[in-house]
Amino acid sequence: MNPDNPLLTDWTTPFKIAPFDLIRPEHFKPAVEEAITVAKNEIEQIVANPGEPDFINTLEALEWAGMLLSRITPILYNLNSSDTSPELQEAAREVSPLLTNFANDITLNPELFRRVKSVYDRKEELVTDKEQMILLDRRYRGFIRGGAGLSEKEKERFREITVELSTLALKFEENVLAETNDFTLHLTTEDEIAGLPEGILESAAALAGEKGMDGWLFTLHAPSYVPFMQYAERRDLRETMLRAYGRRAFRNNEYDNRGLVIRIANLRLEMAKLLGYRNYAAYALEERMASTPGEVNGFLETLLEASAPAGRRDLKDIEEYARSLGHEGHVERWDWAYYSEKLRLERFSIDDEALRPYMPLDKVREAVLGLATRLYGLTFTENKGIPVYNEEVTAFEVHDGEHGLIAILMLDFHPRKGKSGGAWMTGFREQSREPLPEEAGTSTHPGKPGNRIIPVVSLVMNFTRPTPSRPSLLSHSEMNTFLHEFGHALHGMLSDCTYESLSGTNVRRDFVELPSQIMENWAWEKEWLDTWAAHYQTGEKIPGEVLHRLRESLTYNEGYACMRQLSFGLVDMAWHTIEEPFSGDIVEFERAAMAKAELLPPADGSCMSVSFAHLFSGGYAAGYYGYKWAEVLDADAYSLFREKGIFDRETAESFRRNILEKGGSREPDELFRAFRGREPSPDALIERSGFRKT
């Protein structure tokens, strides 16, 4: 070990959290190389074990091999997404092939696979614990899906494909970030800013001032882009913004992602065929609740059929409303948010910007954390002594009554140059239980799991920044995003599994959104909003009639929104069900795939796939449908809260015990049945979305 490399030393920091202030980009490559060497030695010891393979000496030993590496890599990839620099991006590019090759070294190791297969073949005899059985099944399938059954020549090609894919995914993400950062719209006249709310203008003026400019500066980051599209009266400027957003990584420059999309899709297809699948979706979906492309496409078609009438009704409403205001011609994509927001205000007297003063970020944070207190008995205490990776990040100890400290939570709220767009939950350390001493953990005396290792969870978001005259004020949509990501955080923090690879959010991809999406339901509940939402200057609560209308607006334009989301799922499935290498036009392919779910004409010169990070760098390939799949689960699950009471502790305890604590240690359909008492039904989602209305 190199004592000069902080990634390789024993951390004496609070809760053994990474000493971020000491870590530099140049530390990662040598640290990863050292950690891989250590992990390889651990693997060799498993292979060389003279004892007959059993769960403890093979599967559990394999689970704990590479602990040093597992400590280092989350730091690199989390920083590369949330606080990156050119040097850190280069470190990620250097390290990614090393990690992929090491992963291949494990799954393509014939001696190791023989030991795993030996245990798998005798699993009924050797394994009685449910979590151990899940781990064994997942590991065995991981070897098969990782190429263990391939010939030597095929294994070599498999290695080449996986290494290249890991590098391309990083480059894709870098390009999207660079393109998002590259565009600004500088406005200097009153005519250009007509219709924009005071708070948005103040933020834009502050950003312009930081750049030494007069006037107002707008960007493609969500806190700037979204309200601009909703409120700017100048149609030509809305068009400019939308076209700029749609052209990210599609401008024939060094950041153009067209070639990467085609290369990634074709490599995924080649890998799937190498493993014996017709296409990549067939390979990926084998590990999901919806286990075949046919099942996913059938699900998408069912929701499309249910939502299309409502979607067409929504479009007609907006078109008629736009014409009533003097709009001529078609409603274009750059018109939708503008007229939609105006009609929402007229129909429900609900203005997202008018709600902002009632939702200062500090209050929202307190309310969201307080909801976890009310539902699950958790308390959150800020600890300024916990190391954080950026001065804007705050860290909290999470306590659970008599159980004491159960997690560390980091919150990172605002956009900055080195942060990717969007919002996400991640972890610097996942929950598990300490491995037992060798003498206590044998195949004949497995004993009890060791002490619980507390997870370190981070929520990364891009919320509106404070200005010199006002605090950060969230829109209702941003508050909803906070709840969503906090649901993921609860999944990670409340996890109580033995094995890290099964804990927290390490569940099937189309189940992982249930804990997050169920939290969004509280965003529409007067009973919750009334406990905290108050004007940041006057302390006045949101008027009751406004909260009532907010609830009524829940289904507003939901048909359009559902169809838009389904169009994303359709293009995802199209890219990943190709059965021959793609060499056509990306735009034509994308538009054909999305056509039946599209209500508005496409914007010429734009392309979605090239900036669709979920698919090409974010782990949702052949899985984007999972958001809608999980909506079925969350609507059905939340209907029990609606029935019993939205703060009912007994229902919350059941959700915690049966869903949040279990992670991937049980199959998701078993977990849902344990909570709901039956199979999930789509009826609650269809009803909540208003699709039954004519």
Keywords:
694 residues; mainly alpha; Glutathione S-transferase Yfyf (Class Pi), Chain A, domain 2; five-stranded mixed β-sheet
Please sum up the structure shown.
The protein has 694 residues and is mainly α. The protein has 28 helices and nine strands. Among the domains are: 6-107 and 109-145, Up-down Bundle (Glutathione S-transferase Yfyf (Class Pi), Chain A, domain 2), CATH 1.20.1050.40; 183-246, no CATH class.
What does this structure look like?
This protein has 694 residues and is mainly alpha-helical. Among the domains are: 6-107 and 109-145, Glutathione S-transferase Yfyf (Class Pi), Chain A, domain 2, CATH 1.20.1050.40; 183-246, no CATH class. It is built from 28 helices and nine strands. The chain has helices at residues 28-48, 55-64, 67-82, 86-107, 110-121, 123-126, 130-145, 152-182, 198-210, 222-231, 235-246, 258-274, 280-285, 293-324, 333-348, 352-355, 361-376, 476-493, 514-519, 526-529, 544-552, 558-576, 586-594, 613-616, 626-644, 649-660, 668-676, 683-689, and strands at residues 184-187, 216-219, 379-382, 394-399, 405-412, 424-429, 432-433, 452-453, 456-460. Strand 4 and strand 5 (405-412) form a beta hairpin. It is globular.
